[in-house]
Amino acid sequence: MIDELPIPETPEKEVPRWVQVLVGLVLALLTLFCGFASVTMLVVPNEKSPILTVVVGLIMLLGCFWVLEKCSRLLTGRKNRGGLMTPNTLRVVSFFFLVFPVAGLFTGYYRKMGLIAIFQAVMYFSSFLGLRALARKREASGVNEQTK
Prior knowledge:
The protein has helices at residues 17-43, 50-76, 87-107, 109-113, 115-147. By secondary structure, the protein is mostly helical. The chain folds into two domains: 1-79; 81-148. The longest helix has 33 residues, at 115-147.
């Protein structure tokens, strides 16, 4: 029902170039650090469960490569018709924001952290809704551009 609501036509505001470069550099450095940690998991696997360590390390390394690709696009200023992420990618990323609150239910995080955990869950859920709305908006503007 919410997916069928019309989306008002407002152009997306462009982030200044210097902010894109700064964010790309900081994010790339953090991603390289995480990539190093992922490679470490592959080189020195855990003794108790080596297969799980290698699988998790590979998944994390693939995620690091994906983020590094986005950082390179931020640094070089390459434009993509759908923005930094396409509508389908935004939808996939939005579901990852739902994983954290659901995982908190099973791990006892809410009992341990109290109100802070509830606030975090609300923020994750609103991020989920915001990314879904952005995906719908980009998809609608993409359809409008294709018909012109």
